[in-house]
Structure prediction request, 49 residues.
Amino acid sequence: MGSAARAEFEDKYTARANYRILLDIYQEALDTNATGKARRTQPLAPTLK
Prediction:
């Protein structure tokens, strides 16, 4: 696996990256108001560092 492919894998597909994405999803659910509209203005980012 090349170094660029390895870096992409570590950013997107490791347990740590997936955990961070899951926490963002949970936070967005908590931030959703009674009307069903999320307060977040930006989409969730798939790459986290």
